[in-house]
Amino acid sequence: ELARATVPSLAELMRDIPGVQVTDSGQPGLGRIRIRGEESRRTAILVNSQEITDHYEVGTPLTLQPAMVERVEVLRGSGSVLYGSRALSGVVNFITRKGGTEPLQATLEGGYDSATNGYNGFASVYGNIDGFEYRLAGTKSDHDDRSTPAGSMDNTSYDNDGLYLYAGRDFGAQRLEYTYEKYKSSSNVYVEEEVKTTYPLTDFYIESPKRDRDKHGLFYRWEVDNSWLQSFSANAYQQQND
Prior knowledge:
Blueprint (H helix, E strand, L loop, with lengths): L9 H5 L5 E4 L8 E4 L7 E5 L2 E2 L17 E8 L3 H4 L6 E7 L8 E9 L4 E12 L2 E12 L3 E2 L2 E2 L5 E14 L2 E14 L5 H4 L14 E12 L9 E10 L1
Parallel strand pairs: 3-6
Antiparallel strand pairs: 1-2, 3-4, 5-6, 7-8, 8-9, 9-12, 10-11, 12-13, 13-14, 14-15
């Protein structure tokens, strides 16, 4: 299903999963997941089993491109034993694509939204060279304020950029993988007109600063395959949010 998806964002794809709702909290281009009606901040978001944290209390936004996702694992119900109170409603784990089957392969996607005079672009090169798997992908979204029959909606523009790198190789019964993710986002927050001027307010607005993330991940797996231990795996990551 993921391979056939033509949706412009991962949030749109997640809408079809039973028990999952998607909201943007007023920030265009930054969809967030709600499970069984709970707030978005009660859902833990993982990429390749490594948690993505966020420095706001409205929930972790979905920043991956659909073409980068191989499969999605959804755990409904409390996962607080492993991830604390931020996983009271459930856990969503996105497994990204790795290398390819040929030395050099490529994917190119694009879309235009006339309502925002904006575009979405995605490009990826990947492959497998003598057992060395790699993937390099980039994404870009740039949208102006949304136009409606009633006029332009102020503070609905956004600009997102993403970069993803993967490298992996087998060393006999052992495998080592490295990932790097870089994401930059700038978006406004839409506030309904009746809220802006509700007494005693005269002009209410929400300032949303940048949302940037740098993440390095390292994965190790050893297929031991003996009578007392089948396999051993470990992973570590370093993440910085601004």
